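request received
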Amino acid sequence: MKKQNNEEKKSLGLTHKKEEFEKWYPEVLTKSGFVDYSFVSGMLVFRPAAYAAWQIIVNAVDSEFKKNGIEDAYFPLFIPERFLEKEKEHFVGFEPEVAWVTHAGKSKLEERLAVRPTSETIMYPSYSKWIRSWRDLPLRYNQWNNAVRWEFKHPTPLLRTREFLWCEGHSVFASKEEADNERKFIMDLWERILRDYLALPGIVGKKTDNEKFAGAVASYSIEHIMPDGYVVQGPDFHNDGENFAKAFDIKFLDKDGKEKYAWQNTYAISTRELGVMVATHGDDKGLILPPKVAYIQVVIVPIIAKGNEEKILGYARKVAEILKERYRIKLDDREGYTPGYKYNEWELRGVPLRIEIGLKEVEKEQVMFVRRDTGARAEASLGDLVEKVDVILDDIHKNLYERAKKFMQEHMHNVETYDEFKRVLKTKKGIIHAPWCGNSECEEKIKEETGAKTSNIPFDQSDLHGKCIYCGKEAKYMVNFAKSY
Amino acid sequence: MKKQNNEEKKSLGLTHKKEEFEKWYPEVLTKSGFVDYSFVSGMLVFRPAAYAAWQIIVNAVDSEFKKNGIEDAYFPLFIPERFLEKEKEHFVGFEPEVAWVTHAGKSKLEERLAVRPTSETIMYPSYSKWIRSWRDLPLRYNQWNNAVRWEFKHPTPLLRTREFLWCEGHSVFASKEEADNERKFIMDLWERILRDYLALPGIVGKKTDNEKFAGAVASYSIEHIMPDGYVVQGPDFHNDGENFAKAFDIKFLDKDGKEKYAWQNTYAISTRELGVMVATHGDDKGLILPPKVAYIQVVIVPIIAKGNEEKILGYARKVAEILKERYRIKLDDREGYTPGYKYNEWELRGVPLRIEIGLKEVEKEQVMFVRRDTGARAEASLGDLVEKVDVILDDIHKNLYERAKKFMQEHMHNVETYDEFKRVLKTKKGIIHAPWCGNSECEEKIKEETGAKTSNIPFDQSDLHGKCIYCGKEAKYMVNFAKSY
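response:
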């Protein structure tokens, strides 16, 4: 059996993840049928397993949003150029990667329309119209949509694609305090969603001024360390202060009879997280999907013995019936494929739990479990089936999370000096955690000289100590540096 | 009280629906906060009540799709021009209203990209790549997305907008029979969703060859009669035969060892239905939302009596607590507004059921119901509350559906001759149901001479009789004519 598996594995032709991550990653994504390249450069096809995982995230986030008073809306895909230009920093940040609509049918448009890279500049003119008095606040709208950023760097599926799916939360408050208070809810929500659905840890913190969102006063993020040691920015939150309110004239008459600019926040989670999930959990056999977001959670593979086909298939169907009320399952009763071939296929697709059913299982009224994450096998009697599946799926989720967290922790390196910084950057993968004076110039010099950018300033600053690795002044923050996508 | 209501109503300034529907319709949509005009001509903002109704439709349709084996996927927003051109009829049909992306950042693109008006031509190159053998079929993917059609006719919110939200089902089968079999499931599903969620009836039938989808072999639709007598096409289904398979080379190796072209269908339901819903059910006071899709199903308005504020508010909160587990509710405890003002506002927004709570209700431990559809009032004791709300909401739904059906039936006119046809077209609103020879030339002549188009050929042909109203030959079909949006 082992031999057969290996042979068939080779025929799937997967690269080794540890040795050549950048080759393994797109390979595992496409060969597993999770996503595919499309016929537009840099844009993807989300196949059912990927879209289903996204739908589960959408529903989970949306229900938390609604409980907290955030409402869903939908604004136009296109943004007239004159609006995109209104907030200067924002425009400078996004203009280089805007896809422009210039014609409709045979006619040239009078004004170019940007395909939304983000929706501040099409939403806020409406906000300005709607908001008149303190009674209209807070206004907290979110939208689930597609956005386009025509990046010219090398695209990486899901992590750097020219179209992505995401949510855009855009809140307006009467006071800075209320606006600031929203941050904790959103950042905690992102952390919970990543942990409880995608089994992903991350480093929660504040972006430096250099790395904040174009147009924001302050940005916050969760950062992920990828298997190759590069860092990817996950979901985020931005305090926009009064920047956009001033650019778009979002004013309100306050209780005190005075007209004031409103305070705004924005926040987002995107399909990029699916890429982080695949990269983090997958192995040389293919995807490993966390059970909560797995399109198929349990696959049942009957091992047909000659003369006992109906006995085995009948029992497999019974197992499927028991499980299908509670789980997303697949009974793989295809003819003309060996069990080994099927095992490989479902391992490639990342199904967290496999149930094998042969003659022995039928006769003993039991099943054989095989975990995707560890390959561990375990028996269970039919009576314990549902309970055992619950326990195993839960344990798979925990194991994936713990494994990812361990990887993250092992790839965080503390340094005290710039020499140490440069040496670690050359020899080790991951994040370099260093004392920093807080000055943008030091940050820029380090980037220029080494290529490493700051990812974020962790919220947890309990280890603050020492001198800035670049200028030697007293450290104000411990900050994380890394190479990034 | 009556007087106050009337005065406040006037200040809302709604046009009379019956007298000036074309003015009433956009007014009620925007004043109620359901949608708003955006700052891009012909594109809308879906505010929370509209988006929530759409989300409910999406979830209902999606769950039926999944039970039937249809899977969700997501394909790129952009379509390279060379693909859009591949199926000639399809291209001719859509090219005049395509929004073209020509530039990205500062660079001119080598090839123009169409913003999807519909996704056949970006999906089918992938289908061609994926489908090799009969084992890969059926392939039934749907996607929920936004589409852009840059119509140059006068836009009408939700009914004719340049961007809309919809689902696109795109199925591939090994045989014509299997493809044909899908039609009944989809058309029945559309009928059920319209009836059970939006309280909308419609006329189910087949489009004539002249009016079918660009690229299809046969199109089927549900048609709605609007309050002004014009007809709007609702959800649809298209048999594409082998047309796209030949254009995009979607071939498979069948069980018999022969290579064959695949058979395809497409189908869609869009946010246009929200427009039909608003137009059909609303009245001079505003929206009337069917309870199943109402953002707020029950609004509770406390009628504060001086000195008893806390008693009344406390009781209102208790009522809200009881209802909120089961319904989407709102307790309108805003200060500074009269109950009459609040009644008008929630009537304008279309909340199906209002609960008034004054001192009498507190003392008798009861509530006062006021139905949005009929204005009828009824009392209920606190103990019966949930049960009574169930019954009333259900009855509101039925009443809206029956009212709409009656309107539809009253606006279907049978004619036997062309003279009668022309007279009815001038004097009556709605559909003209007439015998037709089935010849496209007669259909075109009638359109040229009168402006009336065929909407569809009803599935129910039990009344087939007589001679074609145009040429006098034996009728092959009873067909519906109307003026249309």
